[in-house]
Specification:
It contains 13 helices and two strands. It has 349 residues and is mainly α. The chain has one domain: MetI-like fold (Orthogonal Bundle), CATH 1.10.3720. The protein has a two-stranded antiparallel sheet. The chain is flat, with a radius of gyration of 26 Å.
Length: 349
């Protein structure tokens, strides 16, 4: 276990080294930092002096060594717009994004597992075919379009007139298809309860939960169809295995076979994919947060690009890369502990 952990930490450090190289390299492509630091009235001589003081005239190797040294100490520069350390700016916006990711993850888990298991147990059922058809549509629809539709239906509201009103059932069907709106679709909400001393969360207030519903559903729509189809495919494969047939031959109850023996082995690959997708959702929140104006790191990143806030852009890339690396490392460790067939020592049996 210790050898496996050391190996994974070494791989994580290598990945972070590559991410730091990429982040450092794109700084020049994002523009000259002096344009954000000084005004137009500053002479060329003063500009050259400032460049020398900031070390911008040093060789790239020296600049990267200075950049990496500060990054190891948690110093990723100062935001041009906020005038604060970029790490503090990101940490101030990160709780909102994590809130969104947690809400979407809960929706994905509590819907994908029962739907995927049902679709595997009864693959020819009409409801299973409906779920599979909807999942294909869900994969094809981009997240921003889902967000816009949700706002139109549940925040603005729609009035549907499809059936003739003069029929006895036409009025009731039109009423059933219409929506009154009223769900909040902008911002994170005002009623936030302190969580863990410094971070704030809307999970513990009614208004915060209302603001969280539509963005969480929108973000979950990206991964939910994927997990439904993944669980169904893995469950179908497990149900064809010999030990499941042996359990059926022994006369065990179908519920015990499906939810105790089969589901346990089905969830092993889902854990791996799920851990990776959690990190992916942090990056995917950019579109969701933009549509709903959710004050997380995704919206902050887009605003930083608009303002040419180079230190904040680079810091965002570093932090998101670190989240990916930590998530993948933890998932590998959990998978190795859950699945006894995985050799954590790295030695041949």
């Amino acid at each position: 276990m210790l050898a496996f952990l050391i190996k994974r930490v070494a791989q994580a450090m290598l990945v972070m080294f590559v991410i730091s190289l990429v982040s450092f390299a794109i700084q020049d492509g994002l523009g000259d930092p002096l344009q954000e630091l000084v005004g137009l009235s500053v002479s060329m001589e003063e500009r050259q002096q400032i460049r020398e003081e900031l070390g911008l005239n040093d060789p790239l190797v020296v600049q990267y060594a200075r950049f990496a040294g500060k990054a190891l100490r948690g110093d990723l520069g100062v935001s041009y717009f906020y005038g604060e350390p970029t790490v503090e700016v990101i940490l101030n916006h990160l709780p909102a994004t994590l809130e969104l990711v947690i809400g979407a993850s809960l929706i994905i888990f509590f819907l994908s597992v029962p739907i995927g298991v049902y679709a595997a147990i009864k693959p020819r059922a009409l409801l299973s075919r409906f779920f599979m058809g909807v999942s294909i549509v869900g994969i094809s629809i981009p997240v921003f379009l889902t967000a816009i539709v949700l706002i139109q239906l549940f925040s603005i509201g729609v009035t549907v007139t499809v059936f003739p009103e003069d029929t006895g059932w036409g009025h009731w069907l039109n009423e059933a298809l219409s929506t009154n709106g009223g769900m909040p679709s902008y911002g994170r909400g005002d009623a936030l309860v302190p969580l863990f001393g410094t971070w704030e969360s809307g999970f513990f207030s009614q208004r915060g939960l209302l603001h969280l519903i539509l963005p969480s559903i929108s973000l979950a729509s990206i991964m939910l169809p994927l997990f439904i189809r993944l669980i169904r495919a893995e469950m179908l494969e497990v149900l064809q295995s010999d030990y499941i047939r042996f359990a059926q031959a022994k006369g065990l109850a179908p519920r015990r076979i499906h939810f105790l023996h089969a589901l346990k082995n089905t969830m092993l690959p889902v854990i791996t994919v799920g851990g990776v997708q959690v990190g992916t959702m942090v990056a995917y929140t950019i579109l969701t947060e933009t549509v709903f104006q959710w004050p997380g790191v995704g919206l902050m990143f887009l605003e930083a690009i608009t303002r040419s806030d180079i230190p904040l852009i680079v810091a965002y890339l570093m932090v998101v890369g670190l989240i990916f690396v930590i998530t993948n490392t933890v998932v590998d460790l959990i998978y190795g502990l859950v699945n006894p067939t995985v050799n954590l020592t790295g030695k041949k049996a």
